[in-house]
Structure formats: C-alpha cells, structure tokens
Amino acid sequence: MRRILSVLAGALLCAFPALADEGMWLPSLISQRIADMQAKGFKLSAEDIYSVNQASLKDAVVLFGGGCTGEVVSKEGLLFTNHHCGYSYIQKHSSVEHDYLKDGFWALTRDQELPNPGLTVSFLDRMEDVTSVMLAAPDKELAAAELVKQATAPGNGLSASVEALYYGNQYFLFVYRVFTDVRFVGAPPSSIGKFGGDTDNWMWPRHTGDFSIFRIYADKDNNPAPYSPDNVPYTPKKYFKVSLGGVKEGDFTFIYGFPGTTQEYITSDAVRYISEVSDPAKIALRTLRLDIQKAYMSNSQAVRIQYSSKNASVSNSWKKWQGEMKGIRKMKTVQSKKEYEAAFEKWAKGTRYEGITEKLADLYRRLEPINYAREYTSETALAIELPQFAASYVSAQPENRQAVKEAFLKDYYMPIDVQTFIDLMAEYGKNVDPEFQPLYYKVHMDLYDNVKDWAYALFTSPFAQGDYSDVEHDPVYEFRREFVKYYNEQLLPVYRDLTSQITELYHDYMQGQMEFEPGKTFYPDANLTLRVAYGKVQGYEPQDGIYYHPQSTLTGIIEKDNPNIFDYDIPQALRDIYATGLYDDQPVCFLATNHTTGGNSGSPVINADGNLIGLNFDRVWEGTQSDVTFDPEICRNISLDVRYLVFVVDKVFHVGAILQEVEFVD
Ligand code: ARG
Ligand code: GLU
Fold it and tell me: Are residues 58 and 86 in the same domain?
C-alpha cells in the first residue's frame, strides 16, 4: 500500500511540476497540490488542511469582520489578527481618558474583555462543488438562493453563499458558522502596532508589531449567540499551536486566509488600462490630496490627529498602485499578454473560441472612456468631504443627525477640504471628457468661471457655515446630489452593461485558455473565499545591487526610533528593554513568497509542521502587481514574526498571562 502511495505521489509530482509559488488554492481541492507542497517541505496531509470528517486546520481560521483573516490559538477561543484589522474596534473603545490606540490595552481577566457590537468572525463549515446544479439552472440567482436556503436554517448561526470561480465555469457553495460575540482582549500601543505608519506601509525593511488579540464567545452549547454576559469562551474544533522555533531563509511557509480580489486572467487591454491609464491618473489625484493633507498636518498637532486615519486610507492605495503600475511595466505584462492572445487566436481558429480576444478588445474599447470617467469622478467630485457629510446628514434619521454631525466635525478641517476641492475639480475639468461631465458641472463652471470662485461659493454656503436648517437646498448638498445622480444614472448603467458582457466572454475565454494550455494548472482568482497559498521564507532584490534579507529585528526598530517623528516614536519601555543588550536579535517581521492580497491581513503563517509562525499583514510595494501578474523574483508578503508578538506581550508589557492558554512548541 505504502509503495503504491509513493508511486502515486511520484506520478502526481510529474503531473504538477514544481511551480513558482504563485497561486491561491481552494482548500477542498488541495489534494491536487499536496504533492508539490510536500516536495517543498510540508509535513502534513491534505486532510490536515481541509476535511469535512475531522477537525482540520481550516477550523482554526476565520474571516474577521468583513475583510480580514484571523486564527484561533487556544482551546478557549483566543484569536490573533492584525492591529490594523482590529483598529476601528480599538478606536471605538478609546476616549481621551482611555486611549487604547495610544496606550494599548490588555484584559487580564475575562470580565475586562470588551464586546464589539457589529463584529463577526466566520468559520468555514464546509464548501461544496455545486457547478452541475448551477450550470443546469435556468435562473442562476434563484438556484443560488435555493442552495443557500437548503444549507442554512434561521437561528442556527449558519450563513452561506454561492460563489462563481473561473468566471462561472465552476460554482461552490460556502457554508459559514458566524459568531457575533467577539471580545477585545489586547493590543499594543499604535507606536508598536502601527510602527512605521504610512511611511513604512508596503515596504521592507519593516518593523510593525501589527497584531491585536480577541476572544470568541458562544452560548453554553458552544453555538454562536448574540452578546450576553452569560456566554462562555468558544471551544474550537481546532486551534494553532504557536511555534517559537523561528524561521530561516528557505523554510516552507503556508498562508491560510481570505484573499479579496485578483485578476490574473484578464487580457492585455485590461492590463494596459490598469497600468497606463487608471493607476497613473488615480496616483496623480491622490498625490495632490496627500500633499495638501501633509502641509496642514505638519503645521498642527490637532490637524494631524484629525486626518491621520483619512490620510492612511488615501495613502494605502496610492502606494499600492505605484508598485502595481511599475511592476506591470517592468514585467512587460501588456506585451506578453498580447503575444499570448495572438497564440491563443491562432490555436482557436475554427473552434468556438475563435475571435474571442478581439471581441473582448472591442468591448474594452467601449468600456475604457466610461470606466475612466467613473473612476475619475469617484476620485474627485465624490471624494470631497463636506458634500459627503451633507448627504449623510440628509439621509440620517432626525434623531441621529446630531451624532452624525459631531462625528464628522470632530475630524474635519475645512482649509484642507477647500484646497482639495480646488485642485481636484481643476483636474476633473482638464481630464474628463465633457461628454462624461454632468450639465450641472458645466453650468457652474460657466457661472463661476474658475474653480476657486466656485469653491468660495460652496464653502461659504449656509450649511458650510453651520446653518443646517435648509440643507436639502444648500449648494453643498446639491453638489453631491448632482454628481451622484450623474454617476448612478449616466455612468453606472453603461459600465455595468459592458462589464457584464465582458464577464460573459471571460467565461468562455477561461475555458478556452484551459483547453489551449492543458498542462497548466489554473487557480481561481481570489474572491474573499478561503484559500491556501504556499511558498518559502525569502528575501528579494528591489533594485540592481541590493538584496533585502528576509528577517528584521529589534535593532532595526531602534535604528528608526525618533521621538520627533510620529511614525517612529516608540514606547520608552521598548527603548529600555533594548538597552539591556539582551534582545538585539529579537525577530520582528519576515518576508516570504506566498501569493497574497488584501483580505489576507491577519492570516496565519504556518510552518512545515502546521504550527503558527507569523501573522501576514502586507506585501512589498514592488510586488503589488501580483493582483494581476505574479513575479516570483519580487512578489513578497510581509508577516509579523509570532515571536515578536510574544516578546511584546510578555517582555515589554509583562502581561504574559494573556498567553498562558496558548500551546507553545519549537
Ligand atoms: N498595506 C496594508 C494593507 O493593505 C496595511 C494597511 C494599514 N496600515 C497603514 N499604515 N495604512 O492593508
Ligand atoms: N494589508 C492588506 C490587507 O488588509 C494585505 C496586504 C496585501 O497583500 O494587499 O489585507
């Protein structure tokens, strides 16, 4: 038997030659990759990763909130995720008296743990191939709803969805068990959890202690239940043991999590649009916004606090797009996709796939101007803060309006918004084809002659000056209403019609590509469903002549430490402990070759033995083209070394009791 198995394994190895570490694989089909994983060092089996019959690693992985991943690390439902994933919850618990963002928070007893209304964690109960049902169904939406209905029952804590893979060539039903009583247990101060801020974001060398700790609660029968003081810690089917053995270059790593979106199979036209049109335009617009914010933030501590979170979110994509655009150009992806399409068409002659790439090209030609106007409008007119606020004020229930107003004004600094309006609307005028501008815009540009005068009129309106009595007729509200109306009624319908035609063609093109390259293993694009990505710890060469080592240490934090730079001002406790000289080599973060994307934040990084060695939290910006095209030379994910988490909790803040329930291994 054993002999047969090893022959089989050998055969599989030949069928799936060792690939670059590209791909986000479906856990239930991981048996197709397990031979390659094992050849690269993994010591467990496919059943250990995903099984419906026994507890497996999947039972220790959760979708945290709506867009992050987390992992269970104890038999009492203790959960690790990123600091930036817990950020908004930590913020909600913070006030001037208890600023947990600034000072950190540690619950030393269960009754100190803080509930988080609205926060859910979802375990994948099972996934099932429902392709045959879906493809046979005359009405797919109805069929999906029926499958979901069969899989769930009111009040049983299950939720389900049917997701298309490979542009609808395959369908899976995903059934989740959703827990709604999730409590905040601990987080370091932002000066550790967000160390490096947006300066270091997407970059190596990295020293961010990007972790926060939560606990899942269940009712007495261990089932999901709304928050109740009577709930008890959840007993998981499976939890990760935490490895203190550390990592070295070349070690096998495996990420288990919920990647959001990738587009690996799009045509050259779609890639060209991203790297030559969309990314450059959006980057330029955000550069303007960031420059304005920076100028005002560096002049005033109050403004810096007001705009720190907004600045972070504007900056996050801005930096990512730069890497994506550069990476696509460097890899000549447009050119190589063109060549691929030519070869495909040659092969497709006389088949039902003939001409499909030309049809796609034609649709993209029609889509491009509308898509550009759509994106440009949301990055300009729809990004102005005061009109956004006017709209949410109008749509709020009267009893909530005061709260909406206070929340907005707390973090609003009008000079930034005015300058942003002037700069962005000037760009809008220059760069959006009049064919795609609302009449409202043209009328106002005629009326005011220039954006500055228009800005003056808007920002001195009664609403802007604090008189909310007639907001629905105020020019600020009108601005938002007219642009949203144009966006929804003129741009979106055409955009949706064309993209749905495109998606339909991709359904066939995907099939065609699989027939064209029968030897290639295609992995489905990310769609926020549970995936496995495996690779190894490895550095990279960002530029000629430079090699980035894959591990960072506490010494690097001290090198960056600067009390005068907000992003690099560390807690005194960290300086003191470094001064003992005992922790110079304390590991902090590491690089690996795992294929990840947004949504993978907080994902467990697992070693060859299936134990937790880190928490994924970022990628290097030079490799962010991996959402479109993966370059094994340069695409790297960045993880927190779990030993730094333990060090911070235990050695820096002396709250090791929190980790007492964790099982540590070598
Ligand atoms: N780049 C990471 C991600 O896309 C981290 C973002 C949060 N951190 C920050 N400095 N903005 O989610
Ligand atoms: N920080 C990202 C997230 O929130 C992960 C980085 C990425 O790979 O895009 O999921």
Answer: yes
* Helix count and strand count (H, E) for the chain: 24, 20
Q: How many whole angstroms separate alpha carbon 653 and alpha carbon 53? A: 41
Domain annotation covers residue 165: no
Task: Identify the CA nearest to 414 among candidates 466, 454, 379.
Answer: 466
Query: Hey, which of 597, 620, 627 would you mutate to test ligand 2's pocket, going by the most ligand atoms within 8 Å of its Cβ?
Result: 597
Residue at a domain's end among 516, 551, 580: 516
pLDDT value at position 19? 62
Neighbours of 348 (CB within 10 A): 19
* Strand, coil or helix: 241: coil
Q: Is the dihedral of CA 508, 600, 93, 60 positive or negative?
A: positive
Domain of residue 371 covers 268-516
* 467 inside domain: yes
Residue 173 lies in a domain: no
| Same domain, yes or no: 247 and 367 | no
Q: How many residues does the chain have?
A: 666
Nearest to 491 by CA among 377, 595, 339: 377
Give the phi and the psi of residue 79 in degrees, each rounded to 5.
-130, 135
Domain end marker among 478, 496, 516: 516
Counting the structural domains of the chain, the total is: 2
Q: Which atom of ligand 1 approaches the CA of 619 most closely?
A: 1
Among 575, 580, 537, 581, residue whose Cα is nearest residue 557: 575
Q: What is the pLDDT of residues 41-93, one digit of tens each?
A: 999 999 999 999 999 999 999 999 999 999 999 999 999 999 999 998 998 88
Cα–Cα distance, 146 to 150 (Å, whole number): 6
Ligand 1 atom showing the smallest separation from residue 202 Cα: 1
Q: Quick check: 478 and 386 in contact, CB under 8 A?
A: no
Please report, for the domain that includes residue 596, its CATH number.
Answer: 2.40.10.120
Contacts of 10 (CB under 8 A, 6+ apart): none
**Mean per-residue pLDDT, 96-101:** 85
Q: How confident is the model at residue 6 (pLDDT cuts 50, 70, 90)?
A: very low
Averaged pLDDT of the chain: 95
CA of 368 to the centre of ligand 2 (A): 27
107 lines ligand 1 (CB under 6 A): no
Assess if residue 129 is contained within a domain: no
Are 594 and 476 in a shared domain? no
